[in-house]
Records
---
Amino acid sequence: MKKDSLKLVVIGGGSSYTPELIEGVIKRHKTLPIKDLWLVDVEEGSPKLETIGNLARRMVSKSGVGLKIHTTLDREAALKDADFVTTQIRVGRLEGRILDERIPLSYGMIGQETNGAGGLFLGLRTIPVILEIAKEMETLCPEAWLVNFSNPAGMVTEALLRYSNNRKVIGLCNVPIGMTMAIAKVLGVEPSRVRMDQAGLNHMVFGLKTYLDGKDISERVIRIMAESGDGISMNNIPPIKWAPEFIRALGTIPCPYLRYYVKKDEMFKELASEFSRGETRAEVVKGYETELFKQYADPELAIKPPELEKRGGAYYSEAACDLIDSIHNDRRDIQTVNTRNRGAIVDLPYESAVEVSSVITREGPMPLSMGELPLPVKGIVQQIKTFERLSAQAAATGDYDTALLALTMNPLSGSDIVCKSVFDEMLKAHRALLPAFLRNHTEKK
Ligand code: G6P
């Protein structure tokens, strides 16, 4: 029977993105009866958690909806009898992200939070924590859904599917919804009239077909994209133009992250210049966060401030709330999520996490059959999946050689020898958050 009172637990509740989620929950209160919202964080995130908790309470009180906000550092107490758990943690905080971006760049490799060496190290820090949360959920709230946005979301979902017993797991990203919104904007129509068949991996997803009011307009959309060369852009990715011939011949809509691979040289040049100015994305975001938290602390503020839109995570709460709403209400609508492939994309392993258009039911996402990926992108998608699988395995086992192999096989990496230098420097820089790893490495020597 459908419950009329839900408990939502947000782990990493002190994130600067949380006000967007609160706004989404308030907006849907008529159909999604979340009555208790628990914001959880770790000790060092405590001041931010309190600021966010107080802002959330002001937002709720202004809206007049019946929603109780709880803040706590006691994760287990929060998880007890939850219906939905979202994880939006950043292990190592923004300081860790700065290292993830800067160290690879100093060796001539692209430094980015979810791709290449940066993505690997974020995964190595994050996956053990998420696996621990999944384990706690087995006893504290075995029926709850775990919706993960923590990056690298694809790698984290892969790890959850392979190394935890929790079967009610979904990975979520704002890129797919962002792509649909961007196309609607270019066409000048309401987003609800546009639907896109999406398939691939997190941050390596493609719009295979686009429909407007049910009519296949894929060719028209590709033509428009090719002519402008702008493609889909996001605040966190340098918007370097595409060659029109490339987009035309590709015949599918790439997500903005493909730029790191296809435009590796231009992107490296751009990132290296940000590096030398001390303005890598993480450093810029740190500045935004300081400003945002100043605003959040203002007792007069009771809305999500528009400055939050400078971040790359636009529409993330739309995606999250739509997903939770559709599971609770068994809406059976189509959303793009990270879920077990189960044959939906024939070029990828049956058991692996893929990002794919799925029907969202109360039993979870049912991935739609997408058949084969287009030839030009099949290879890179498979290679990134290999990177994700090796990285997830390394994170779950703490095995040094597997982790180094994952890095070496990533298309953004340099030679095996350079990879070892980058890897060792990153391991040293993050050692406090990778104890199992260092222990295994020392034992092997
Ligand atoms: C995009 C990605 C997210 C990522 C965000 C970073 O939206 O899809 O996975 O977290 O950008 O944005 P930021 O403002 O932190 O650079």
---
Amino acid sequence: MKLKVLILAGDGIGPEVTQEAVRVLKTVADLGGHDFSFDEKRIGGVAIKADGTPLPKATLDAALESDAVLLGAVGGNEFNSLTPDKRPEAGLLAIRQALGGFANLRPAFAHPALAINSPLRPEVIDGADILFVRELLGGLYFGKPREWNRETGEAWNTMRYNRSEVVRVARVAFELASPRRRKLPSVDKANVLEVSQLWRATVTELAPQYPDVTLDHQYVDACSMHLMNTPRNFDVVLTENLFGDILSDESAVITGSLGMLPSATIGGAVNLYEPVHGSAPDIAGKGIANPLGAILTAAMLLRHSAGLEQDALAIEASVRKVLDDGHRTADLLRGGETKRKATSTQEMGALVHEALNEIIDRRQAMHAV
Ligand code: NAD
């Protein structure tokens, strides 16, 4: 299997966690005899400093020529005074738009070993396994007009969708719900927003084409409460860009830490893979960031861009094993555990690498019998 991966480590903890994700991809390539090649380019704050723009042309060209893009995170406090179009985050929005992926998949599941980390009671999160399908190229983040008029003291953004943008992302959600538990809430604010009324009507029209999936509709405010009260009731959740950004971060409380959440953006010319968390300037450079979200993102890359489902499952099993064995980065040490020594970013990566070696070795030995 040949795969050309572009690495965009970005800012803050981006390079620290991405290094560990690349390590597991190399392990899979070595053990499986795959030909994975890795190129690296700049994006975000590092690109602003070196190239004067958050998304240099060389980065965009390399991304469009790759089979998959693995991104760390962008952003930093030193750029906070810049206008939105000059900030590191502008590079992220621009690359998302250029690659064309419109469906952002964000799984959030409760690891039994991390139950103590959640502020929710273990019996509430036990068995929770949610897949958010967030529309990524429309809504408030891209809609025009948008402006902050400093003279008049007004600012405005535009939440805009057309029917075909809703149809294409809704199809992804219906198709992903079908082999799972076949429950699909579509989340909107149709009691107030016209754009949500269009969203709801369009998703409802599609539903008869997927008779095995049970569609229902929830208002985003109610949904945010139900997610915390009864997370187990959710399977696949379909929603628009802003609501999906907020609800999927909220669901970090189910997994125990924002550092645990992976994501994949599919549907465009090249798929884009990035952990859900940001550049975490408060802990950058300390070697304490949790790399498991980035490592689970690498698993999604193998699943959605390489068709290597068994290897994706092996990475997920390796993460479960190191957690079951009691290893914790600082963000995962909570409650009565805070006196234990935290596992560093690199140590955690090495532990997953070891577990992955064992799991793949065992699988290959079984196949050889
Ligand atoms: P953040 O996700 O960077 O951090 C929020 C909190 O979670 C912080 O306390 C941080 O230390 C912690 N955290 C995040 N990831 C962690 C990890 N892997 N291990 C341990 N702890 C972790 O969000 P923020 O503080 O709101 O934003 C910081 C910067 O990142 C901003 O410039 C923001 O715009 C940017 N951002 C970028 C992305 C992206 O690149 N996809 C996403 C969100 C935020």
